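Thread: quick sanity check before group meeting

JM: Hey all, I'm pulling together slides for Thursday and realized we never actually wrote out the predicted structure for the chain we discussed last week. Dropping the sequence here so it's in one place. If anyone has concerns about the input, flag it before I start.
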Amino acid sequence: MGMKVGFVQFEPLFGEVDRNLERAGDLIMGSDADLLVLPELFNTGYVFTSKEETISLSEQIPEGRTTQRLCELAREKETFIVGGLAEKDNGRTFNSAVLVSPGGYIGRYRKTHLFFEEKVWFDPGDEGFKVYDIGTCTVGIMICFDWFFPESMRALSLMGADIICHPANLVLPFCQESMKTRCLENHVFAITANRTGTEARGDTALLFTGMSQVTGPDGSVLFRGGGDSEEVRTVEIDPKAARDKNVNTYNNLFADRRPGFYGDLVGKNTKE
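JM (edit): ok, ran it. Output follows.
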């Protein structure tokens, strides 16, 4: 069974949560997707300058206004939505993402691999990777820099994800091309939703690369957005294509794994 999946790409303005929710909502309302992915921290912007600022802009999940607004949009458009936001929980803050459906809130993911100054403003994710059955397919979530660690997508794929939803605020020039390999080595779809624009606050200035992307299980780019455009794009896919892990008659991506030879290694951090 085919489904329409896609991304919402736009330029959030730092701290302007109402405006960012409104802009994202306008873009979502113009889409006919079955599954949409929004950027990382789409509601707040990215360049925080103090822990107090992070706390003030973070929200509880699912009670917060951002998650509730996404639930309203999902219900109205009869679609599933993944979006990134700053989460607060008992004095801690996380770079998180939520999955919502026409029926309401489904679940959250807290970013495992923090990038750059995120290590100052956020706590590292403490709940691990998860997958969710949404009926037509099974989806997993990772956030931005998680892509740099092949274990992220491998873990989600081994757990049965057909589609990896990937909210991002990309500034390095590698991800879009590298997602071809990530999808090929796991034979899954991925939706990378990146933001656009520049944020300069305090001593930090970052240029975000745009070029949000839907990647297929064979490593093909099904659609790539512009570098600085605000857009919502969808492509039609058959999620069942991600369930065939055969490379040829003799090779299967997962059956051919030999964890007995590298299982111990992937659990170790090397030290200088």
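AS: nice. The chain has a mean pLDDT of 96. The chain has one domain: 3-267.
JM: adding both to the slides.
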